[in-house]
Amino acid sequence: MAAPLAARGLATGAVDLPSCQMPAGARAGLHDDTAAVTAAVTAAVERKGGPVVLVGHSYGGVVIAEAGAHDAVAHLAYLDAVVPDAGESLADLGGPDPAPWMDPGDDGTVGVHTEHVRELFLHDCDDATVAGAVARLTRQSARPFGEAPATVAWRTTPATFVVCADDRAIPAERQRAFAGRLGRWVEVATGHFPFLARPDVLAGVLADIAGTC
Fold it and tell me: Residues 6 or more apart from 159 whose CB is under 8 A from it?
C-alpha cells in the first residue's frame, strides 16, 4: 500500500508483529504486538509528525484497540477486522472452536491450511498475487487469541470500519455487526485482502479517512 498511499500524499509504515516472528513468536502475545505498534507510532511522529491513522486488518483490530490509545493517533481504521470491547479476546468473539482453515500446532502456534487460502481469502486475486501471498504465510503464536486488549481506544478515538463485502472467510454480516460498534463504516467489493486485490480502491478509502483528521 505504500505507493498508492504516497500518491495521495500519505506517508505509511507497516509493523512486523512479534507474535508472527518465528521462532521467538511462539512466546510473544498481544501486548508484545501492541508495544511494537506503539513504538512504531512514536518513531513515525518523531520523523514526520502527526496525526496518525492506525489501520488494523483482521486480528490487527485487537492490536489497534490497545495501541490506539497513543496520544498521536487521531483515527482508527478497522479493515475487515475484529472489534473487541473491554475484556474480550479474539477467542471470545470467534467462538470456542478454531475456524476450519486454522491449523493449530502442538508448539503453541497457529497456521493456515494453505489449501483453503485461495478459495476463502484470495479468490479475487490473480495467480501471481496468490502465489506471493502463500509464499509469505507464517505461523503465529497462539497466545494473542486468548488475550484481551488492556484498553479499548475506539471508545474514545474516532474509528471507521471498512467492510469487505465479498469476503468468504469473515461474512459481511459479521463485519457489519462489528462496524455497528463503531457507528461508522464504508464498504468495498473485495475479499479478505483488499490491499492485494484492489490497492487503489483501498488507498482512496484510507485517504478519505485520513482527510477527516
Answer: 68, 75, 76, 77, 78, 153, 182, 184
pLDDT of residue 75: 98
Indicate the residue type of 165.
A
Domains of the chain: 2-210 (3.40.50.1820)
* β pairing state of 159-164 and 73-79: parallel
Q: Are the C-beta atoms of 180 and 172 separated by less than 8 Å? A: no
Which residues, other chains included, contact 155 with Cβ-Cβ below 8 Å and sequence gap of 6+? Answer: none
Tell me the pTM. 0.95
107-127 burial: b if 16+ Cβ within 10 Å, else e: eebbebeeebbeebbbbbbee
Distance CA 213, CA 211 (A): 6
CA angle 149, 77, 133 (to 5 degrees): 90
Which of 60, 33, 22 is CA-nearest to residue 139?
A: 22
Can you read off the three cell numbers belonging to residue 186?
A: 464504508
Q: Closest Cα partner for 183 from 151, 158, 212? A: 158
Check whether 2 has a pLDDT greater than 80.
yes
